[in-house]
Amino acid sequence: MFAILQFAFMQRALAAGVVIAVVAPLIGMFLVVRRYSLMADTLAHVSLAGIALGILFNIHPLAGALLASLIAAVSIESIRRSKAGFEESALALFLSGGLALATVILSAAHSFNVNLLSFLFGSIATVAQSDVYAIIILGIFVAATILLLYKELFAVAFDEELAGAQGIKARTFGLVIMTLAAVTVSLALRIVGVLLTGALMVIPVVSALRFGYGFRRTLCLSIAFSLLAVVSGLFLAFTFNLASGGVIVLAALFIFTLSALLN
Q1: Please, are residues 31 and 202 in contact by the beta-carbon 8 Å criterion?
Q2: Which residues neighbour 177 within 8 Å (Cβ) at sequence distance 6 or greater?
Q3: pTM exceeding the 0.85 threshold for the entire prediction
């Protein structure tokens, strides 16, 4: 099995995959606790519009995806803060709107090709060295921010009103969570794909929650589940020439099934 690592593209995919496997449940945990599990899917679909703009204007797709998802994250958080009563509808609006915009841009640019499919479903063969560097740098940024602001993010995720009463700026740290989610979604696009990124951020967390541990132990367990799903999924995708995103998510679902049977 380790003979697979002699291939340079597999080394790049594994390096990027490990970073994503650690970061995805880190921020996914806060989204699940906030009951915002669909946020990851929404940002992923919006990021597709950013990828389309990147292809159209010949810039790095990851940069376009990051910009689009950041704008969407800030906008959705602003809508949620407005107390307008249609927070969940806003997710649906951005999800469908982002996908529709991406479709229009790509059709206008005549860019429906195999490379686009790799963004939709993930592909280990298309991970470039520049992608690996970007994923590692942004992954370190996300992880370091969470570790540095852990107490504040923890308090805001569980109860914003109580956090505000304790002097924590709930609005600011809520925006931090959304921004980190947008960055994480952009990181996972190459390996997992637009359509399945949200699943990797949520399924390992839900699997770990089945064991009923405290927040920190659950967070560590979700990272372990995510690593197992990503590494095994990458090896299976290479062995059977399959889309990496689908195999990784199926591996995560298998782990969830086992955790549900055990608990």
Answers
A1: yes
A2: 27, 30, 31, 34, 153, 156, 157
A3: yes
